[in-house]
């Protein structure tokens, strides 16, 4: 019996019932207990979040990773390239470095809220994660943590940009650029832009971790994750 069939059959019943059905559908050698299934799911989510934070919340976590490196938005990126051509490349590079250092400092604060989201996971959320695709857990994290993380990140980003008196100058220039549609209006505030990009980068790395765990649960080194998610692959 496939997992989706089990989930649909049991609908809104408690997670214990869902996991019981999952266990029954497995071969005897692969069966896991309800406690193991719950533990494995939560451990996998927590592990993916912790790895993502550790990768990004360090020097060059954003700046040194092309997947999440934060550029200047829209026409400002083009302006930075022009600055380099006219010998002002150092200033342009410092500007980009400031944005990414702010994101690296902010993302460290994500771990407690991500772990809290795992602990508060509802039955419906668990169903979606168990029956969903490679990024089902990541989508759960987005729904449950985007708003509180943005509030947590923003003052840290503001502090970082304020040190180099960057935000006000950027906002004046970007505000004018937005009026002429040279950049997206939502990017006209520097601190908001960096905060959003920091969140995007965090969820991207969490998604990568989730996909890796689903693909190779044994490789995590955790017996319970290997047993639970290994069974889902069968």
How would you explain this protein's 3D organization?
- The protein is mostly helical and about 230 residues long.
- The chain has one domain.
- The chain has helices at about 5-10, 15-25, 35-55, 75-85, 90-105, 110-120, 125-130, 135-165, 165-180, 190-215, 225-234.
- It is elongated, with a radius of gyration of 22 Å.
- Residues about 1-30 have low confidence and may be disordered.
Which labels suit this protein?
disordered N terminus, 11 helices, 234 residues, mainly alpha, 0% strand
In short:
Helix content is 72%, strand content 0%.
List the helices and strands and how they pair.
Blueprint: H1 3-10, H2 15-25, H3 34-56, H4 75-85, H5 89-107, H6 110-119, H7 123-131, H8 136-163, H9 167-179, H10 190-215, H11 223-233
């Amino acid at each position: 019996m496939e997992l989706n069939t089990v989930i649909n059959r049991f609908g809104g019943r408690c997670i214990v019932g869902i996991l019981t059905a999952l266990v029954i559908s497995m071969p005897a050698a692969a069966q896991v207990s309800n406690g193991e299934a719950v533990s494995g799911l939560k451990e996998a989510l927590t592990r993916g979040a912790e790895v993502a934070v550790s990768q990004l919340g360090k020097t060059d976590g954003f700046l040194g990773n092309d997947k999440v490196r934060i550029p200047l938005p829209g026409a400002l990126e083009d302006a930075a390239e022009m600055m380099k051509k006219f010998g002002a490349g150092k200033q342009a590079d410092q500007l980009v470095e400031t944005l990414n250092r702010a994101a690296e400092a902010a993302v460290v604060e994500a771990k407690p809220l991500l772990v809290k989201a795992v602990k508060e996971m509802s039955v419906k959320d668990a169903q979606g994660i168990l029956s969903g695709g490679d990024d089902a857990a990541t989508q759960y994290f987005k729904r449950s943590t985007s708003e509180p993380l943005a509030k947590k990140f923003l003052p840290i980003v503001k502090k970082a940009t304020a040190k180099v008196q960057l935000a006000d100058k950027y906002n004046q220039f970007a505000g004018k650029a937005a009026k002429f549609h040279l950049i997206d209006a939502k990017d006209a505030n520097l601190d908001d832009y960096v905060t959003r990009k920091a969140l995007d980068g965090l969820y991207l790395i969490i998604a990568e971790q989730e996909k890796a765990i689903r693909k190779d649960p044994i490789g995590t080194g955790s017996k319970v994750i290997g047993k639970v998610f290994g069974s889902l692959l069968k």
